[in-house]
Amino acid sequence: MDQLSPQVAELPRIMSERTIRISAEDVNIYYGEKHAIKNLSVNIPDKAVSAFIGPSGCGKSTFLRAINRMNDTIPNCRLTGDVKLDGKSIYDKDVDVVQLRSHVGMVFQKPNPFPKSIFENVAYGPRIHGLTKNKTDLEGMVVASLKKAGLFEEVKDRLHQSGTGLSGGQQQRLCIARAIAVNPEVILMDEPCSALDPIATARIEELIDELRQNYCIIIVTHSMQQAARVSQLTAFFHLGILVETGDTDEMFTSPKDKRTQDYITGRFG
Amino acid sequence: MPDHIVKAYDQDISSLKTMLAQMGGLAEDQLENAILALSKRDVALADQVIKRDEKLDEIEREIEEKAILTIAKRQPMALDLREIMVAIRVSSDIERIGDLAKNTAKRTHAISESLPRRLSTGLARMGVMAQAQLKDVLDAYARKDDTLAMRVWRSDEDLDALYNSIFRELLTYMMEDPRNISLCTHLLFGAKNLERIGDHTTNIAENIHYLIHGKTITEGRPKKDVTAMMNPSEVD
């Protein structure tokens, strides 16, 4: 115990205020020969936003995708170590990947609504997972999810029109509503605002700030300002290594590692 | 520290530093001349100090504009953010130092008539000390030298101690002969100005520490200015 105490003292403040939702233990990820993530161990707090930042190719998206086993679909992608959700390994043989992904939702860089109505986009998840008993139940779920995603007021009169007819920002919020509809505990976001204009970005950021009351959110972003604005915990990745994890407030004013400092101040390529 | 990928960003920050260096040099001159003017009762030099204070105000405005523009354009982070914030704060401290030097110079007019030499020696001594504090803290800022900055921070108590003794001394002269009151009051304000200059140099020192370490100093600064609690009955 004594040996642990110095490390405990250096833990980010947010970790002492929240429970741990996700923990990665000595994770290594390979794409064939390429060693994309090296000996990564990290704890991700519940009811908070954690931001992964780092230059392109640093492994942040790779690690994000490991959290809901999206990498399983990539041939010759291999993972060693373990990722746990609420203390249970998500890589155990008995884990149903489809079930896992309902607990760990994902929102992508480019909004990707199904070519179906707004209603169907949101209803799809609860229906296939059998989360609702009847039609009224399902409708309630769709409306609640759209409301949580801050989209309901804008689309309530056209729920049966195609989701692809919405603006980019609205489509992204539709994708967030779709992710929320299956009652996830974790929402992964891979650069959710990079295809959006500043107003739509602000709406999504506002939404993320509301959602963090109830979810564990992880966001990968190339915008340092966005990471500084929306997250409580920031993790900096470089060349497949998790260089530094810390409270966001401190990471952007006085990071400890020189590599973090150089990256966030725009000093290396 | 490697350069920024965007070269113009480096220029933004280095021009802030250049302006601050220029401002600091000017403030040192102003303080030196203000003390000289007062102790030699040189009205012409005093007027020159008063006039040149405008230049300090002007550079402070330029620094502020440049800093705001840089924040808007570059969204600085970490060390860059601290560098810019500290530049704004330090320039405002230097500007105040300039004002205090100007105010000290102004008093030359009031005391130019018949100032007994013995009355001004304490003030001149305090002036030398304040000048040394200012010089050291500006050097510490230019060189990012935390050790030197902390030395300035700690040694402000010497300036406070000297101020206390001047306060006592002037109070004694005033009690000895009420005709001294007008003169001594001006000298007392002059001494107070120098003591305040010392406080501003410690502010700058604290900012240097923050710039280098990203953390503010939490321990209390040693202070020896006890004049607020003094009354004439304590003076012998």
C-alpha-based Rg of chain A, rounded: 19 Å
**Whole-number mean pLDDT of chain B:** 91
The string of secondary-structure elements of chain B, in order, is HHHHHH
Shape of chain A: globular
How much of the sequence of chain A is in beta strands?
25-35%
The fraction of residues assigned to DSSP E strands of chain B is: under 5%
Cα-to-Cα separation, first versus last residue of chain A = 41 Å
Helix-strand topology string of chain A: HHEEEHEEHEHHHHEHEHEEHH
Estimated helix fraction of chain A: 25-40%
Name the assembly state. Answer: heterodimer
Structural category of chain A? alpha/beta
Q: Percent of residues of chain B in helical segments? A: over 70%
Query: What summary fits the major beta sheet of chain A?
Result: 6 strands, mixed
Overall pLDDT score of chain A: 92
Distance between the termini of chain B: 58 Å
Low-confidence stretches of chain B: none
Mass-distribution shape of chain B? elongated
Tally the helices of chain B: 6
> Total strand count of chain A, please?
10
Rounded to the nearest angstrom, the radius of gyration of chain B is 20 Å
Topology:
The complex is a heterodimer of chains A (269) and B (236).
Chain A: H1 5-10, H2 13-17, E1 20-31, E2 34-45, E3 48-53, H3 60-66, E4 77-85, E5 88-89, H4 97-103, E6 104-107, H5 118-128, H6 135-148, H7 152-155, H8 168-180, E7 186-190, H9 198-211, E8 216-220, H10 224-230, E9 233-238, E10 241-247, H11 248-251, H12 258-264
Parallel strand pairs in A: 3-8, 3-9, 6-7, 7-8
Antiparallel strand pairs in A: 1-2, 1-4, 4-5, 9-10
Helix pairs in contact in A: 5-6, 5-8, 6-8, 8-9
Chain B: H1 7-40, H2 43-74, H3 78-111, H4 117-143, H5 146-176, H6 181-213
Helix pairs in contact in B: 1-2, 1-3, 1-4, 2-3, 3-6, 4-5, 4-6, 5-6
